[in-house]
């Protein structure tokens, strides 16, 4: 990461550098999420195809908006957002999405796992920002709330009448997809 030469008033450059690093991770996660959602949109099949196919595009658009917000916050803080595919692959700490052409419900099981990881990481960064930068924290809080609602849309397809999720005992995309089928 390049050294920050300026930042917003009232924020020390060292703090801004820490925040930019945290946001760069969120930028990668959100870029990956919107690409994963689009991948699932293209690869869903089966009797729930149209419902899931049409549900995913607005989610892609929402997450794409988050990507832009995070990148612009990095720039506002004096950083340089790195949104290249190479940087995403080099810096990510998670595996690539593992489901190809598959039943719509299987994709939703896997996407539930993906959303869980992104939301948990967002919440972790929100906690770190508590005293560091309330403006950036507020942005991530808003995004986390909207990501939770998007996950709810996914989970509604996986939920039984008793409130349990078909994939709730799984931790991997493959396991969740299998359980959801």
Automatic annotation (TrEMBL):
Keywords noted in UniProt: DNA-binding
Source superkingdom: Bacteria
Molecular function in Gene Ontology: DNA binding
A Pfam family reported for this protein in Swiss-Prot or TrEMBL: Ferritin
Gene3D superfamilies, A to Z: 1.20.1260.10
Residues annotated as domain Ferritin/DPS: 22-159
CDD domains, alphabetized: DPS (cd01043)
Similarity annotation: Belongs to the Dps family.
Full protein name: Starvation-inducible DNA-binding protein
Organism: Pseudonocardia parietis
């Amino acid at each position: 990461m390049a050294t920050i030469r300026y930042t917003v008033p009232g924020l020390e450059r060292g703090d801004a550098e820490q925040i930019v690093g945290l946001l760069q991770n969120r930028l990668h996660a959100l870029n990956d999420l919107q690409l994963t959602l689009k991948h699932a949109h293209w690869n869903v099949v089966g009797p729930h195809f149209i419902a899931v196919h049409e549900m995913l595009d607005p989610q892609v658009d929402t997450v794409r908006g988050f990507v832009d917000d995070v990148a612009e916050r990095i720039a506002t803080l004096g950083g340089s957002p790195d949104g290249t595919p190479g940087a995403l692959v080099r810096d990510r700490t998670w595996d690539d999405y593992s489901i190809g052409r598959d039943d719509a419900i299987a994709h939703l099981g896997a996407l539930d796992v993906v959303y869980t990881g992104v939301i948990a990481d967002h919440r972790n960064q929100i906690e770190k920002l508590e005293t560091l930068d309330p403006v950036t924290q507020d942005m991530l809080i808003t995004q986390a709330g909207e990501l939770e609602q998007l996950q709810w849309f996914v989970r509604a397809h996986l939920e039984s009448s008793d409130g349990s999720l078909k994939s709730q005992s799984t931790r991997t995309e493959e396991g969740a997809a299998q359980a959801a089928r």
